[in-house]
Amino acid sequence: MGNWGWRGVVAALALFCAGQARAAGSVVVYCGVNEAWCRAASTAFEQKTGIHVDMTRQSAGEIFARLRAEGANPRGDVWFGGTGDPHLQAASLGLLEEYKPAALGELQDWAQNQAKRSNYRTVGLYMGALGYGYNADELAKRKIAAPACWADLLKPEFKGEVQMADPNASGTTWTMLATLVQLMGEDGAFDYLKKLAKNIDHYTTAGAAPAQALGRGEVMIGIAFQHDVVDVAKQYKFVRVVSPCEGTGFEIGSLSLIKGARHPEEAKQFYDWALTPEAQAIAAKNGAFQVPSNKATPIPPEAPDLSKLKLIDYDFAKYGSSEERTRLLGRWTKEIKNGG
User: In this structure, are residues 83 and 253 in contact, taking their beta carbons and an 8 Å threshold?
Assistant: First the structure.
């Protein structure tokens, strides 16, 4: 066969492969869980379906802001993970598509309740409790008592040694803000946060970043979801996990279809797959130790036992509203971040 013959075969193969790729389709996923889980989920779905995944990892607050900015011309198809309150807020603004997955009846009650309260515009993917971690070695070296409560974080010996995220960007810290308001009352919570600001090293963008900074020895205390602290504690033996004595809030990490998505059928395939035990088991293999929503998915042994924690009766309806988010974040930015 001459050169032109081989070129023709190569060209035909290229066209065939391109046609196959087009036939398989693609899906754009805005991912709110940790980077390793995002990548592993994308790879697993591609291998199972042949559908290409274009994944972008951001914090829940950043994804919510992105959806609002994109408005009626969304570039994403699926919002995968991240704290559920911003999902609810996006649902209330008409940014998410109503969808009842086939697996809905296989999910935990709290996951189904998330779907019901959003009129089936989002669903629970996992659950995790808020808390913080501390550096046991450093505390022992400085002869500081280990913190056990939210109140302990205000002690002067922790000046410049506490890290948390900015609730404007982070779903983790939005949960913290809403939790403190429910525990202490709004004015009490803001008084607490003003005092805590004196001990804050700096406000990060990602909610898991303070736990990671704790592991690197940059701060003595990192406020995060407990499962994120657990992941760091597996790598650094001096890290301890705290569920605050006064009580704490929790997240229902969620999954949503973006309204007006460019790849709606592929998006539904990803959504349905993400709720299967096969897909949810990927989390624990990639350092994510939340409680999964499908009843048939094994709970990672590292996951905090939520039945033993003092969890508040978190008001998802109120703190999942766009109006309450806008109001409280405005007050936090003015009084805490910008110093009043």
Answer: yes
Confidence check: pLDDT of 200 > 60: yes
Per-chain mean pLDDT for the chain: 92
Tokens of 113: 């309740």
Residues 164 and 273 in one domain: no
Position 312 in a domain: no
Which pLDDT score, from 0 to 100, does residue 12 have? 42
Both tokens assigned to 160: 């410049």
Do both 208 and 144 map to the same domain? yes
Least confident of 14-23, 37-46, 91-100: 14-23
Provide the domain limits for residue 167: 128-250+324-337
Do 163 and 227 have their domain in common?
yes
Strand segments (E) across the chain: 26-31, 52-57, 78-80, 123-135, 162-165, 200-204, 221-225, 239-242, 250-257, 291-292
Separation of alpha carbons 21 and 25, rounded Å? 6
Q: Which two tokens stand for residue 184?
A: 């202490």
CATH number of the domain bearing residue 207: 3.40.190.10
Which stretch of DSSP H or E encloses residue 301?
Answer: none
Tell me the pLDDT band of 43, cut-offs 50, 70 and 90.
very high
Closest CA to 206 of 292, 90, 82, 320: 82
- State residue 311 phi and psi, 5-degree precision: -95, 140
